[in-house]
Design goal:
By secondary structure, this protein is of the alpha+beta class. Helix content is about 35%, strand content about 35%. The protein has helices spanning about 10, 25-40, 50-65, and strands at about 20, 40-50, 70-85, 90-100.
Amino acid sequence: MEEKEPQPAWTQQTSENTVFIGRKHVMNYVVACLTFLNSSKKGILKVRRRTISRTVDTVELLKRILVKDLQLKNISICIEQVAGRESKTRNVSTLELDVAKP
């Protein structure tokens, strides 16, 4: 029986209104955010490592062009320890943004 690698804490607490920002084009994440903002009026953007700037771009596009009254409810910044190669752990920067539309 295969052992599963434990998932980071922030990936275990997901909901349908959570968008994980990765390496895709910014507009993909803008569309995903618009989808959850139209249905529930609030959501969470989660990001790790080098894609933090892509998250900022996504939120700014939403605020300036598409959802002018978008509000940032909470910004959480932390460092998460992740298992690396050769059973070493490494620190990874994480960012979580709670956004809402009034």
